[in-house]
């Protein structure tokens, strides 16, 4: 009588175990993305820069984006910046679009250097760039990334 009870139980256990092993992962995989960009603009207490970027993700997704940066702080100048950005891991390229809070420092006479740390919810973005112009400052503001 005991053998009859354990045989169906062993069969059910084996079937459940096999299905658990062969099931695909339910969680979405994360991917890393980078961006090359070009921004140009001016600043005098208020800073406004606009430009374009190209995002590439490790999972093969790519996008052309529009960039718009507006901030306020101790700043003066005019410059053009080319650089790169690195995003924290995302599930999908579409998570990257939107507004990012930004803290920035920039300086240059003829050759400009720019660095920004940005965040939008769980996603972070670090930008570094070089360019030309005359500028100096520290600002706080926002960068908007939109599809082109």
Automatic annotation (TrEMBL):
Residues 1-27 form the signal peptide. It comes from the Bacteria. InterPro entries: EipA-like. Keywords: Signal. This is Secreted protein.
